[in-house]
Amino acid sequence: MKNTGDVIRKRREELKLTQTQLAEALGCSQPNIRKIEQGSTPDIRIALKIESVSE
Predict the structure, then answer these.
(1) N or C: which end of the chain has fewer CB within 10 A?
(2) Where are the domains of the chain?
(3) Residues with Cβ < 8 Å from 37, sequence gap 6 or more?
């Protein structure tokens, strides 16, 4: 079963974004994106922004 980080990584790659580009779009840091993709639970504000960027 995929975790949230796996889903986010897959969608980011589908959009052809780097972690840095996604971080800039979300107003957070690249290390924060890396941690989320590795399994950390994202802050709710970032999670909501991720949803809007991926649509």
Answers:
(1) N
(2) 4-54
(3) 5, 6, 8, 9, 12, 19
Smallest CA-to-CA distance from 19 within 52, 50, 45 is with 50
Residue 1 is predicted with a pLDDT of: 54
Decide: 20 and 30 in contact? Cβ < 8 Å.
yes
3-state secondary structure of 1: coil
Average pLDDT over residues 9-31: 95
User: Mean pLDDT throughout 24-42?
Assistant: 94
